[in-house]
Amino acid sequence: MHPLIISDPTLRDGSHAVKHQLTRENLELYSRMAEKAGMAVLEVGHGNGLGASSLQLGESLLSDAEMLSICRNNLRRTRLSIHVIPGFATIHRDLQAALELGVDIVRVASHCTEADLTKRHIEYVRGQNRTAYGVLMMSHMASAEVLGSEALKMQGYGAQAIILMDSAGAYLPGDVTAKIQYLCSILDIPVGFHAHNNLGLAIGNSLAAAEAGATILDGTARGFGAGAGNAQLEALVAALHHSGRDTGIELYALLELAEQAEIAFAKAPKLGSMSIVSGMAGVFSGFVKPVERIAKEYCVDPKAVMVELGRRKVVAGQEDLILEAALTLSQQA
Amino acid sequence: MHPLIISDPTLRDGSHAVKHQLTRENLELYSRMAEKAGMAVLEVGHGNGLGASSLQLGESLLSDAEMLSICRNNLRRTRLSIHVIPGFATIHRDLQAALELGVDIVRVASHCTEADLTKRHIEYVRGQNRTAYGVLMMSHMASAEVLGSEALKMQGYGAQAIILMDSAGAYLPGDVTAKIQYLCSILDIPVGFHAHNNLGLAIGNSLAAAEAGATILDGTARGFGAGAGNAQLEALVAALHHSGRDTGIELYALLELAEQAEIAFAKAPKLGSMSIVSGMAGVFSGFVKPVERIAKEYCVDPKAVMVELGRRKVVAGQEDLILEAALTLSQQA
C-alpha cells in the first residue's frame, strides 16, 4: 500500500474560523509544531486562497507574503503548500511572488466542471519546476464521469495529483468510494480527498476515500474550517493508524499541536442546524451567515432558503441569489 | 427495507455530560419536543442506567421515578425506554417500580462476554409483557463469533433485539460492517448499534451499521454523552434521510430539539486528545478524568496510562487499575 500523504490546511481553511485574523504568533507556533510532528504538507494563506484577501471576502490580518515567509522559515521536511483559485490569484502578481518565497506545492482549484480555468496556472507552476495539484471544488455536484473528464484535463495540463473537495459536506461514504475508485481507475496520478463535516461524516468519508485508493487526505486541527469545519486532523490520523495505515506523523506531537491550535482559534467549529441543512442541500457553508441575515430580514425560514439555494445549485460567488430565493419564499408565504 | 428505529438516549447517556444534573425543566422540554419530532424511542435516567445514582457514580438531581414520570406524561407515540445494568438495578426494587411507572422498553446490558447476567432481568421484563432488548457493552473487545454466542443467549432469554455498544468509540467502519452482518445472519431478532465519537466516526459507523442490516440506531442531541459523546442525533438523521432511508422523524422539529438541548446542556462534547487516545486504546471514556488526575499525581503522561489500561483490557468498575498502571509507568520512568 502507498504511504498516505496528510495535507494540513489548518492555516488556510481554518482561517475562515477566525475571519482570516491569524496572528504572526499563531503561524510561528503552528508551523514549528507541524514540522516537529512530521506533517507531510502544510497549506497556508487566506481562507479562500492566494490573493483572496479583500473587502468582499474578508481581509487577512497578515499579507500572503508575511504568512508564507513565517511558515517557510520553520519548515524543513514539511512541504509548504498554497490554495490558488484563478481569478483571485493572478500569475504575475501573486503566484510568481509565492513561488519566489519558496512554496513547494500549488493546489490550483476550480469549480468541479470548470477545469479549463486552471490550465494557465498549472502550466506556469510546472514551468517553474514546482509541484502542481488540480483541485475540483463542490465535487458532489458532478457525476463520476464528469469529474473524470475534468480531472483528465488537469492531468493533461501537468497536474501531479487531483484533489476532490466535498466543499459542502454533502457526500455519503458510498458516494466517496464510487467517485474515488473511478478517478483512481482512469488517472495516472494520485487522488486526494478534502472533507467537510456538515453531516458529521468528515472522518468517515476520509477513511472511505483512503480505502478506495486516495493517497492524499486533508484535515485540520480540531476540524477548524469554514462552517461545520473539516476532517478533524488528529482524529483522522488516529483512525488511520488504528486501521494500520501509516502517515509518517508522530501522533502525540500532533495531539499537542491540536491542543495549541484550540487555544489559538478559541472555539471549535459547531455542527449546528444550518450546517446540517447546508450539507443536505449541497450548498457551501460560506452561505450560512448571509442566508441567516437575509432570511431574518424577509421573515422566512433560513433552512427553507438554504434548501431553495440547493435546488438552484448555487456555488460560491452567487450570493446575490440568496436575496432572490428569500424574496420568492416570502411571497409564497 | 425495514424502517429504521431511532432510539434517543440524550436524557440518559447525555446526562453524563452534565454529571446527571438534568432538571425537571430540561426533561419536560426535551420529552415534549421529542414526541413532537416523532422520535421512536426516548431513553431516560441516570447516565449509568436505572438504580445507578450513587456516591461513587454520581448522584442524579432527580430520582429515577421523577425522571420517568415527567417523560411518561409527555410521551404518546414515542416509547419510553430505560438502560438497565443488573447489579445497579435490582428487579424488585428498581425494575418493578419502573415498569409500574409505564416504561415500554427495557434495555438490559452487560459486558459483551457476560450475557448470562442479563437472564433474570430479561425474563422478568418479558413476564410483565414489556419489551426487552439485550445490550452488549464494550463490544469491540470480543470477536464477531463471541458476540454472536452471547447475543444468542440473550435471544434465548427472550430479548426482542440486540444492541451492540461501541462504548469506547474504538470501532472502524469495517469492524462495524463485519460484526453487524454476522449478528444479523445468525439472529432472528433485530440488531442495533450505539456509537461513541472518540475517533470521530460515530456517524460513519452508524451508517455502516445501517447498511449492514442494523435497524435500531442510537444518537443523542448534539452528541451529548460520556467523554467524546455519542452519534450526533440530528446529523445522523439528516445523513440517513440524505441516503434515502426513512426514520419517521420530522427533521426540522429535531433540529429545533437539538438547539434547545444545546442551551440546556450548556456545552457540546469535545473530541480532545484524551478522548482520541481512549478510542485507540479501547478504554471507556469514563476513565479519562480519573486517569488525568492520577497521572498528574504520579508525574506520568496520561496518554501512556490510557494505552497501558487498554493493554490490560480494563472495563468500567476497574478504576483501581489506573493507580497500578500509573505506578508502574512512574517506576519505569
Automatic annotation (TrEMBL), chains A, B:
It catalyses: (S)-4-hydroxy-2-oxohexanoate = propanal + pyruvate; (S)-4-hydroxy-2-oxopentanoate = acetaldehyde + pyruvate. InterPro entries: 2-IPM_HCS-like (IPR050073), 4OH_2_O-val_aldolase (IPR017629), Aldolase_TIM (IPR013785), DmpG_comm (IPR012425), DRE_TIM_HOA (IPR035685), PYR_CT (IPR000891). Residues 4-255 form the Pyruvate carboxyltransferase domain. The record marks R12 as: Transition state stabilizer. The active site is at H16 (proton acceptor). Its EC number is 4.1.3.39. Mn(2+) binds at D13, H194, H196. It comes from the Bacteria. Pfam families: DmpG_comm, HMGL-like. It is an enzyme of class 4 (lyase). GO terms for molecular function: 4-hydroxy-2-oxovalerate aldolase activity. NCBIfam families: 4OH_2_O_val_ald (TIGR03217), PRK08195.1 (NF006049). Belongs to the 4-hydroxy-2-oxovalerate aldolase family. PANTHER family: 2-ISOPROPYLMALATE SYNTHASE 1, CHLOROPLASTIC-RELATED, HOMOCITRATE SYNTHASE-RELATED. This is 4-hydroxy-2-oxovalerate aldolase. It comes from Paenibacillus silagei. The lineage of its organism: Bacteria, Bacillati, Bacillota, Bacilli, Bacillales.
